[in-house]
Amino acid sequence: MVISKKVRERRNPPKRIPPGPKPWPIVGNLHQLSSLPHKSLHLLAQKYGEIMQLKYGSRTVVVASSPKMAEEFLKTHDNVFASRPPLASGKYTGYNYQDITWAPYGPHWRKGRKIYLTEIFTLKRLDSFESIRVEERLNFLSGIYAESGNPIVLRNHIRRYTLSSISRMVLSDKYFSDHKTDTSLVSISEFHEMIDEWMVLNGVLNIGDWIPWLRNFDLQGYVKRMKAVSDKFDAFYNYVIADHMAKKHLPGKNFVPKEMVDVLLQLSEDDIDPEVKLTLEAVKALVHDLMLGGTDTSGITIEWTIHEILRHPRVLATLREELDKVIGRERWVQENDFPQMPYLEAIIKETLRLHLPSPMLAPHFALEDCNVAGYDISKETIIFINSWSIGRHPDHWDDPYEFKPERFLQGSEINMTGQDFTLLPFGSGRRGCPGYTLALRLVRTTVGNMFHGFNWIFPEGMRSEDICMVERFGLTTCPEVPISIIPEPRLPIHLYK
Ligand code: HEM
User: Where does the chain bind heme (predicted)?
Assistant: First the structure.
């Protein structure tokens, strides 16, 4: 018997699984997660290490918390972990996994991703939309100027501006307004509510995903809410697409695609691919990705950057020196000024090191069994890359909890777009963010101009220490309390009009 056991073991050696906390029956380790799961997982990683295995209900989850482990999953074995798990949010809020964010790895995802990279996010296309970004930015800065001397809630202005910038590039500017009109189906505030609801529902722990026999009961009511918010988005996109189609087929006019949705509709009409057809449903899913992927993430990054600058007068003074030297006082910061503004760039990197809109990358999913760093990871394991933890890793960052943009100056080669695994705000590899060029153009010019164009005065009784740095969790993580602050113009008045 002893011999046959030894032979069995040699043929099927026991699996070496990553260390981790002991799961409880039924719930697994779910009870160990707080409302900010990235922080709970960060604390667990201090005990169990840079790669650990947990159970979320009956599902196996592996968490990577160091640059080395992120590289294992996103580069060394990228082909194995390039899928997404089939969670309810992808089914009910991602057009049944047809949007690119939630699509499983395969021909449909590959096709959508190729369209983004070769048709939507090319430098030529992004340059062609620069005039829209300039116009929207000036509207935003003029709106703030109109409130000079009064406290304003910055978040409201930033959100409105990022939504109008992205939606004008994707859809045109006629579908939103303060109130519903003939052409605007929803008001801006309603659309923001829809985005908020979508973000919350894409960030929640939906019990039915983890304990499948409870799925049909929808105990938390999340699936019902997912269906309701998706219906609202779908009605909106149906309207927008019908409107663009009508414009496209106007008799006697030569159609030239103007917005991103036009490009997608043209591709859909010309598509002769027998394997994966770009249907109208798929076009809606791609539009949905662009609208949802771009607005909140960029706005939250701008907000965190402003909070950090205002808390650090020394950083603000150095940024102002750079602005006055490179831009002067007679014009606004433009996109082509970026290469001359290394300190602004360092501030944005430092903000994204500490305050990621997505503190953990969207979940990855093992397509097959794989050995990672000596551990056996089974097919269908869900992988979380904790980039919040990675940005604070003491082996890679001195004073990891301090806000020090200077760390990115003086010969630092650290890149934030996926080549360097110590800083992963946009992920890396096959599933890395396709929209990062657009996002960085928006964030850099907005932050630069907000400090170039205005002094920011705290309302009476408020000090820089009162600025909220507490995180509120959803799919994206923003400051719990938005800042209210008084703008004071610092450039010649004609520039604000
Ligand atoms: C500061 C702004 C942004 C941040 C921090 C950000 C971050 C991310 C992250 C972390 C991922 C997941 C990467 C992974 O799973 O490995 C992602 C994916 C994605 N992002 Fe962004 N993003 C931003 C802006 C944008 C913009 C402007 C767009 C489009 C308009 C966009 C569209 C997408 C899409 C479609 C995906 C899914 C890619 C896939 O699964 O293949 N993002 N983004």
Answer: 433
